[in-house]
Structure formats: C-alpha cells, structure tokens
Specification:
The chain has strands at 5-8, 12-14, 24-33, 38-41, 47-50, 59-60, 66-68, 75-84, 99-101, 108-109. It has 110 residues and is mainly beta. The strands form 3 sheets. The chain has a 5-stranded antiparallel beta sheet with strand order 1-3-8-5-6, with no helix packed on it. The protein starts with a strand and ends with a strand.
Length: 110
C-alpha cells in the first residue's frame, strides 16, 4: 500500500502585526497523493480560508472546515487564500504576532 502524502508550499505563515479592524492575507498551495479520504483543512479561530483571492464565494473557518475530496487518491494542487482578522477578544485590541502552523493538515477523513 503506497504511503499517503500531503504536500504544502509552506509550513507556516507569519502575518506580522495586524491592527484590530484590519486583516492580513497570504496564500499557499496544497496537494495530496495516495489519499484514502478527503483532505480536511480546519483553520484556527480568527483565520479564514477561501479558494478565491477576493474571498467571494464560500469562506471556510473553524466551524466550517474545507474538505478537498481526492479523485483516484489524488488532490490536485490548489491555491488556498488565508486571511487573518484579529477579533474584539484581543486584549490590546491589536494582534500578537500571528505565526501559526497548519497542524490540521494531517486530518484525513474517510
């Protein structure tokens, strides 16, 4: 049985300092081979993901993760756009550095 492989164009994103009310956006690519289930991407709180740079259409979040179903075990390379928007819960009303890792990429579902 071939080993499942998920390929990311980067392992982290540093959004730097983002003022309350603003947002920072970046992107990365993801693909997978030999997958036996969907590639599920669950962003952390205050981060959203879109398949569109303009963030029009469906936006994925902590409560609504993105699921990419493989065709023949393969998820072709997709560009994902990531937006960090600090919330009102931030104590200083400004962000701390938002260097987070995509820990959830290992979440394969059958």
């Amino acid at each position: 049985v071939p080993e499942q492989e998920i390929v990311l164009s980067r392992s982290s994103i540093d959004f730097g300092e983002v003022a309350f009310g603003d947002f920072a956006q970046s992107n990365y690519t993801v693909s997978g081979v030999n997958l036996t289930g969907s590639l599920v991407i669950t962003p952390p709180d205050e981060v959203t993901i879109s398949l569109s740079e303009a963030f029009d259409g469906t936006v994925y979040s902590l409560g609504s993760p993105l699921s990419l179903a493989p065709a023949g075990g393969t998820v072709v390379e997709r560009t994902l756009y990531v937006r960090y928007t600090p919330g009102a819960d931030d104590e200083s009303m400004q962000t701390n550095s938002a260097d987070y890792y995509f820990r959830n990429f290992g979440g394969l579902k059958d």
